[in-house]
Write a structure and sequence with these properties.
The protein is of the alpha/beta class and about 350 residues long. The protein folds into two domains: about 200 residues, Nucleotidyltransferase, domain 5 (2-Layer Sandwich); about 110 residues, 3-Layer(aba) Sandwich (Rossmann fold). About 30% of the residues lie in helices and about 15% in strands. It is built from ten helices and twelve strands. The strands form three sheets. It has a six-stranded mixed beta sheet with strand order 1-5-4-3-6-7. The longest helix is centred in the C-terminal third of the chain and has 20 residues.
Amino acid sequence: MMPPGRKPRNRPGAGSRPPPAGTAPSPVPRASHENAPRWRRREEYKPTDGLCQAKQGTISTWGWDMEFIALDVETANADIASICAIGMVHFRDGAIVRNLSTLINPQDHFDPVNVGIHGITPEAVASAPTIKAIYPQLSAALCPSIVVHHTHFDRTAFHKVSIKHRLPDLTCRWLDSSSIARRAWPDCAQRGYGLADLGKKLNIVFKHHDATEDARAAGEVVLRAIATTGISLDQWLSLVAQPIKTKTEDYEPHVARSGNPDGPLNGEVIAFTGKLSIERDRAARLAAMAGCKVADNVSKKTSILVVGDQDIRVLIGHDKSTKQRKAEALIADGAQLRIMGESDFQLLLKHVVEIVRLTHSA
């Protein structure tokens, strides 16, 4: 995540690029406490850091252009303003850039129940900074970024801190990863969207109730949801405010746009359905550049329907999406409509680009 004092790039949620290899990252202004927060670059991570890891493979991030900070806090007692640990992990384009973890002296009592959950004791935070002392640094790091948190607890904790200490509220763009999970995976809509349950479902291994690891896991949940649904980070910001629905396809983003009038596919009307290997918005941009008019839904005017990989479990017993079934019905009625897989669509675009290149070189 962006160190305080560094200006973000000119896009929402942007932080600073990590420094070149061999150079130290810009340090956070250090408080006069031994345990003041320290920013670490990705290459400083060690297995002993305990950051959660995917059990199998990595997530494809081709075509992604996004940035966010995942955040988690632990508290000393039932008062959610009694923050005793903060973990933050900065993601850019599907990868970790850097992280920050720090203990906080809540200047409050520690409930044995809370200590039993996270293992943080009064002795551990005795020389740590107070939340009020490091709040300016946190504000500079988080605002105006997209900040991912799991459930409303962490966001509410900071809001209460601002009230308790008469500090300005954080002006970041909050995004609840549990709300995303409840919409990305229908079986998690009503239950099973806790971080531990999602870790098991998505094969994310992490140490629960460690602030940095929980933050990292919340960020991983967001990445998996984007990869599964093709819905971008910016689109999720608005979709989480919508009612929870029963099918993943109900959340397909709006990508309608006009096509390039000079493109070789001008006159075609294209729609997309199902999970694509790239974000739906990027696929729509590529189609529009080639000349296609992009529509959100299938109609009598549709001439091409691109079908992505389908997960039968999320289609309520159907093996085809609503759009595909409608397209097949239109074809049966005589519509001039072609259904093609995403790989064929990509091959079509490749040939179109080659035709344009040969035309221009002739």
